[in-house]
Amino acid sequence: MSCKDQSVDGQYTIAAGQSVEVSSAGKATLTASSIQNNLCPTGVQCIRAGEILGDFLATQDGNTVAVSLCNGPDCANLHKGVPAKTTVAVGGRTWTIELVSVLESTPQKAVVNVVVQ
């Protein structure tokens, strides 16, 4: 089986401006350009439920693709067309990236699932 046939699965916690290595097959990194936590805090009554927005750069062997993701109750109304999960081609590999959540203790850090095939 070649390296291209292998998938790299992982869940990463990443802050804006931070990069994580997501694959040992070639140089692959995910960089968070920005993370916005607009969710209504627990125990607070808000006008809207909110959302998490994330802008990321997926880089594979020197090729970079920008990805914007949104997760939360208000994504469908306020950020139409911005998914919580997407699949993109980067440097000859297929990346699936999903914005899962933010950490309650550090709301500017996002939890992201990544699969590279």
Question: Secondary-structure map with pairings?
Answer:
Layout: E1 8-15, E2 19-23, E3 28-37, E4 52-60, E5 63-71, H1 75-78, E6 85-90, E7 93-102, E8 109-116
Antiparallel strand pairs: 1-8, 2-3, 3-4, 4-5, 6-7, 7-8
Rounded radius of gyration (Å): 15 Å
The portion of residues forming beta strands comes to over 45%
Instruction: Give the CA-CA distance, first to last residue.
Output: 12 Å
Shape by Cα distribution? elongated
What is the chain-wise order of helices and strands? Answer: EEEEEHEEE
Unreliable spans are: 1-6
Which assembly state applies to the chains in this document? single chain
Number of H- or I-type helical stretches: 1
Helix content: under 10%
Strand order of the largest sheet: 1-8-7-6
Tell how many strands the DSSP assignment holds: 8
Q: What's the rounded overall pLDDT mean?
A: 84
Major sheet, described briefly? 4 strands, antiparallel
Indicate the structural class: mainly beta
